[in-house]
């Protein structure tokens, strides 16, 4: 274990709970650090259930195509903690380095002096310290969980706020209805600060609109103020300022069209003079690992059946499953490959809800444990959940074992294999493949 790994491991012990949505501990540590949250570049604060990371990836690609230096804070990471902190630089950003990360965390540990604080709160404070010390044009800041009580919500004056698609997730913290969850997400709205809303369930939209009005935050909403559609193999974005004819986004799946549209709506708001060529380059160059990522090289491709098509995705809730299933159905229209899902989920997730949309589409589910996360659900339980929604399922001990099992089966046509159910599982797949995010 490296000194950095040992330090990160110690931080998990500072609070008896993994998650506790209050701001007091975070505010205390930030004051002790000299309030780095007040020294950040202009912040675009992004909440939502699904699509936060993809929307941020599109915004980063567009802004970097325009020559801007863009800091990015996202979570969780797939393979290495460093993925959470990306530092903007001319010509594109880079992940925080070992020495800089270790120094920031060590300083925060010294200042915190053993006081109770959650891992996410502590590491967010350290990220703010790092970002405050490096000049940039923007900070794209992803909410960890919810919004109202999230550690990132110490930002009092963001440049803009964004809420992507809302659905049921983390009900134990955010509530069991769309309305309650939307209320928590709306907690990031600030007086006079523009709020951009991605495509929403009508119940969520009603709550978001009401909370924005109460806060005095002007709203730009999908369908009402901007829209996007695919037309003759092109991506057409339209708002009150006009229409932009663009190439289809590099990130696959119809759900990514809405994420791209939201990103364009935000950047049109904060940088109204950007040329259409900047958006074109952003949509073509965007990169966001483990979101319908096709693994064509690496160890996983070698382990699976000869000629198999292998995809990974970090989707893990009902709406995420529906979006991935729609993409798999689109792929099925273009080839007759049988679909097999290697699925691992967490105990905190509704596995059946995630898998339900694959009924009639997937030939089989091979359930695996999520080894890298202590909330991983046993493979037998994942298999049972798949069977309950009508999907033939067997349990396996790992992704590698599942691929070896599939490799010795007889296939009339090489299968399409989807590894999905958890971001942590997607991270394990990238690590096994030898292609971690950079």
Automatic annotation (TrEMBL):
Keyword Nucleotide-binding found: yes
Descriptive protein name: Dihydrofolate synthase/folylpolyglutamate synthase
Biological process per Gene Ontology, one example term: folic acid biosynthetic process
Enzyme Commission code(s) on record: 6.3.2.12, 6.3.2.17
Gene3D superfamilies in the cross-refs: Mur ligase, C-terminal domain, Mur-like, catalytic domain
Chain ranges of the Mur ligase C-terminal domain: 298-422
Cofactor: Mg(2+)
Family, per entry: Belongs to the folylpolyglutamate synthase family.
Signal peptide: none
SUPFAM superfamilies: MurD-like peptide ligases, catalytic domain, MurD-like peptide ligases, peptide-binding domain
NCBIfam families: folC (TIGR01499)
Alphabetical list of Pfam families matching this protein: Mur_ligase_C (PF02875), Mur_ligase_M (PF08245)
Listed PANTHER family: DIHYDROFOLATE SYNTHETASE-RELATED, FOLYLPOLYGLUTAMATE SYNTHASE-RELATED
Pathway where it operates: Cofactor biosynthesis; tetrahydrofolylpolyglutamate biosynthesis; Cofactor biosynthesis; tetrahydrofolate biosynthesis; 7,8-dihydrofolate from 2-amino-4-hydroxy-6-hydroxymethyl-7,8-dihydropteridine diphosphate and 4-aminobenzoate: step 2/2
Domain Mur ligase central: 46-266
Cellular component terms (Gene Ontology): cytoplasm
Domain of life: Bacteria
UniProt source species: Methylocella silvestris (strain DSM 15510 / CIP 108128 / LMG 27833 / NCIMB 13906 / BL2)
Keyword tags: ATP-binding, Folate biosynthesis, Ligase, Magnesium, Metal-binding, Nucleotide-binding
Functional description taken from the UniProt entry: Functions in two distinct reactions of the de novo folate biosynthetic pathway. Catalyzes the addition of a glutamate residue to dihydropteroate (7,8-dihydropteroate or H2Pte) to form dihydrofolate (7,8-dihydrofolate monoglutamate or H2Pte-Glu). Also catalyzes successive additions of L-glutamate to tetrahydrofolate or 10-formyltetrahydrofolate or 5,10-methylenetetrahydrofolate, leading to folylpolyglutamate derivatives.
One Gene Ontology MF term: ATP binding
């Amino acid at each position: 274990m490296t000194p950095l790994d040992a330090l990160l491991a110690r931080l998990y012990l500072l609070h008896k709970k993994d998650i506790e949505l209050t701001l007091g501990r975070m505010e205390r540590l930030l004051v002790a650090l000299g309030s780095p949250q007040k020294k950040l570049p202009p912040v675009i604060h992004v909440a939502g259930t699904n699509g936060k990371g993809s929307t941020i990836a599109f915004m980063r690609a567009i802004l970097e195509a325009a020559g801007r230096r863009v800091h990015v804070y996202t979570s969780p990471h797939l393979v290495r903690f460093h993925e959470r902190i990306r530092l903007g630089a001319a010509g594109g950003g880079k992940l925080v380095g070992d020495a800089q990360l270790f120094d920031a965390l060590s300083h925060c540990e010294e200042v915190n002096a053993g006081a109770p604080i959650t891992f996410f709160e502590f590491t967010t404070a350290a990220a703010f310290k790092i970002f405050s010390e490096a000049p940039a044009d923007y900070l794209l800041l992803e909410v960890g969980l919810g919004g109202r009580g999230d550690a990132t919500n110490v930002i009092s004056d963001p440049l803009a706020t964004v809420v992507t698609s809302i659905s049921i997730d983390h009900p134990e913290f955010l509530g069991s209805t769309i309305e309650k969850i939307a209320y928590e997400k709306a907690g990031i709205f600030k007086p006079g600060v523009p709020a951009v809303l991605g495509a929403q369930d009508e119940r969520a939209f009603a709550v978001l609109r009401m909370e924005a009005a109460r806060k005095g935050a002007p709203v730009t909403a999908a369908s009402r103020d901007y829209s996007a559609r695919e037309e003759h193999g092109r991506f057409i974005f339209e708002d009150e300022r006009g229409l932009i004819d663009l190439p289809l986004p590099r990130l696959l799946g119809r759900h990514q069209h809405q994420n791209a549209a939201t990103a364009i709506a935000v950047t049109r708001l904060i940088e109204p003079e950007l040329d259409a060529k900047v958006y074109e380059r952003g949509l073509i160059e965007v990169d966001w690992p483990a979101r319908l990522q096709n693994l064509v090289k690496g160890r996983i491709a070698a382990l699976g059946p000869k000629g198999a098509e292998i995809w990974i995705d970090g989707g893990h809730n009902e709406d995420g499953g529906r979006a991935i299933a729609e993409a798999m159905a689109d792929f099925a229209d273009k080839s007759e490959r049988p679909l097999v899902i290697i699925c691992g989920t967490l105990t905190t997730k509704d596995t059946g809800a995630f898998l339900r949309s694959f009924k009639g589409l997937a030939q089989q589910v091979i359930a695996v444990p999520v080894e890298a996360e202590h909330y991983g659900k046993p493979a037998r339980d994942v298999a049972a959940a798949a069977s309950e929604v009508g999907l033939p399922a067997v349990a396996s001990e790992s992704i590698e074992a599942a691929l070896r099992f599939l490799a010795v089966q007889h296939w009339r046509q090489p299968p399409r294999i989807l590894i999905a159910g958890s971001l942590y599982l997607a991270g394990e797949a990238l690590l096994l493949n030898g292609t971690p995010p950079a």
